[in-house]
């Protein structure tokens, strides 16, 4: 047993997203979203980047998120298993298109609201707090076709209406909200992250910064709305975090690391401190872009900052200005990084760096001085059953316990941490690859990459391990 410092109120749990778990993509009056249009296979990456030939479903492509793991129908069974592990919270997202099928309908879709009402009630009945992301990647297709998704200023108002609808309905039920999942994903996978499709001749960076401004104003308006409607509840931002290391002590590398981190901090500086930082203003000036900001936007950003900082952490990143080193990029990472010779990588080429979560948490806390919430962390791996038919995922236990031990150290360092929700406590569709074989769960789901399988749930070895960790409030780590 280790001495741990996780507070008594620590929110242990797991995190999933509507578009990767629910399925039922046309049920209950739901409209189509960007994620529904993402196929598995070779096309996927260029689609996620915003290079999309046809904004429509094609018969010959397989779309894993359409059925996903059928959480839409099976959530009661799944929640029982989460409760058995002792979850204190479950992070889920609401699908915008279940509530407003077109994104901007005059009235919300009652069937969609009822689905989430039942889901949250089931969680509460099992002693599990819902932690809810308002937008986890999915944008209604109608908004993409009509307004260019977040390129259009109109989305600010539509999103605000959507958020207000949720807050009014779930007031007193949901205590923790988040505005946008991994808001910085907009820069890396613009279609997956924010429904952005590029047109020929567009200045991509300008488009992305304009869309970012719209999301930042929308996020601040959601904060304002929640504080008015349900002052007891809290609302956070959410960053795909991960410290960037300079490859060497050459000041050029060190500066490159600072600049790379600022591409992500840029968002949180606005959401948490309430204003564009000096380095962003300098960048805008030098680009000579005509970014459209309305009068009053700055006041909105200033007045409505987030209550806490949610972040995902999978790996650290490394940067170099040396062309020879730059040739050795890691494959498979969404965030560009050169290979760090001190660290191993996962089967998908993602760098494994437990110490990095302590460094990241310390940096975020030093910078913002607001409570942090680790809302994603985990190892995507191929799970094979052993001779006894059981999945002994010792590698997953190693990864997770090493990260949790470092978080325990971060708490000792003085970091205020609300909770920890590992990514995909039950196997779900992978966002970046669209595959089922990239699994994160403590609970196995019988479904293969082609969509075949019974969808039956079964426990892996990590199930009992996590149960113990929660039971002992981390002492079993
Ligand atoms: C984050 C997303 C999640 C999730 C996770 C793991 O970027 O917020 O939705 O999928 O990464 O990534 P993947 O599923 O690609 O392995």
TrEMBL record:
InterPro entries per the UniProt record, alphabetical: GH, GH_1_N_CS, Glyco_hydro_1, Glyco_hydro_1_AS
Active-site residues annotated for this sequence: 376 (nucleophile)
Record bears the keyword Hydrolase: yes
UniProt entry keywords in alphabetical sequence: Glycosidase, Hydrolase
GO molecular function: beta-glucosidase activity
PROSITE patterns for the chain: GLYCOSYL_HYDROL_F1_1, GLYCOSYL_HYDROL_F1_2
UniProt feature coiled coil, ranges: none
Domain of life, per lineage: Bacteria
Any one GO CC term of the record: cytosol
GO biological process, alphabetically ordered: carbohydrate catabolic process
Family statement: Belongs to the glycosyl hydrolase 1 family.
NCBIfam families referenced in this protein's UniProt entry, alphabetically: PRK09593.1 (NF007158), PRK09852.1 (NF007356)
Record's protein name: 6-phospho-beta-glucosidase
Taxonomic source organism: Rossellomorea marisflavi
């Amino acid at each position: 047993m280790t001495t741990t410092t996780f507070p008594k109120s620590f929110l242990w749990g797991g995190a999933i997203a509507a578009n990767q778990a629910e399925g039922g993509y046309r049920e209950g009056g739901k409209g189509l979203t960007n994620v529904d249009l993402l196929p598995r296979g070779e096309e996927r990456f260029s689609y996620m980047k915003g290079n999309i030939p046809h904004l429509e479903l094609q018969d010959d492509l397989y779309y894993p998120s359409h059925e996903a793991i059928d959480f839409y129908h099976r959530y009661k069974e799944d929640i029982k298993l989460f409760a058995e592990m002792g979850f204190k919270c479950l992070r889920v997202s609401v699908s915008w298109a279940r509530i407003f099928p077109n994104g901007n309908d005059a009235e919300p879709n009652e069937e969609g609201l009822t689905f989430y009402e039942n889901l949250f009630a089931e969680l509460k009945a099992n002693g599990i707090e819902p932690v809810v992301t308002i937008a986890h990647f999915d944008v209604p297709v109608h908004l993409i076709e009509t307004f260019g998704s977040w390129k259009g200023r109109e989305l600010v108002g539509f999103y605000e209406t959507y958020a207000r609808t949720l807050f009014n309905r779930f007031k007193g039920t949901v205590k923790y909200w988040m505005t946008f999942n991994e808001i910085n994903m907009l820069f890396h996978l613009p279609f997956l992250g924010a429904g952005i499709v590029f047109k020929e001749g567009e200045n991509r960076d300008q488009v992305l910064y304009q869309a970012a401004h719209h999301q930042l104003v929308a996020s601040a308006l959601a904060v304002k709305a929640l504080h008015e409607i349900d002052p007891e509840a809290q609302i956070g931002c959410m960053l795909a975090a991960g410290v960037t290391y300079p490859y060497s002590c050459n000041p050029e590398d060190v500066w490159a690391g600072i600049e790379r981190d600022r591409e992500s901090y840029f968002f949180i500086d606005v959401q948490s401190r309430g204003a564009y930082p000096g380095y962003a203003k300098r960048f805008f000036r030098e680009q000579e872009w005509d970014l459209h900001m309305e009068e009053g936007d700055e006041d909105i950003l200033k007045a409505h900052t987030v209550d806490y900082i949610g972040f995902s952490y999978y790996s650290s990143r490394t940067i170099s200005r040396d062309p020879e080193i730059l040739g050795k990029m890691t494959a498979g990472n969404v965030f560009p990084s050169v290979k760090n010779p001190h660290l191993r990588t996962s089967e998908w080429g993602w760098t494994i760096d437990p110490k990095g979560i302590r460094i990241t948490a310390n940096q975020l806390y030093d910078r913002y001085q607001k409570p942090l919430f680790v809302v994603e962390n985990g190892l995507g791996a191929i799970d094979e059953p052993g001779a006894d038919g059981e999945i002994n995922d010792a590698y997953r236990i190693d990864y997770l316990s090493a990260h949790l031990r470092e978080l325990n150290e971060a708490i000792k360092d003085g970091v205020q941490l609300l909770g920890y929700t590992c990514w995909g406590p039950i196997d779900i569709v992978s966002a970046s690859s669209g595959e089922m074989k990239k699994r994160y769960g403590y609970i196995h789901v019988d479904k293969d990459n082609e969509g075949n399988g019974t969808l039956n749930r079964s426990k892996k070895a990590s199930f009992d391990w996590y149960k113990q960790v929660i039971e002992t409030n981390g002492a079993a780590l």
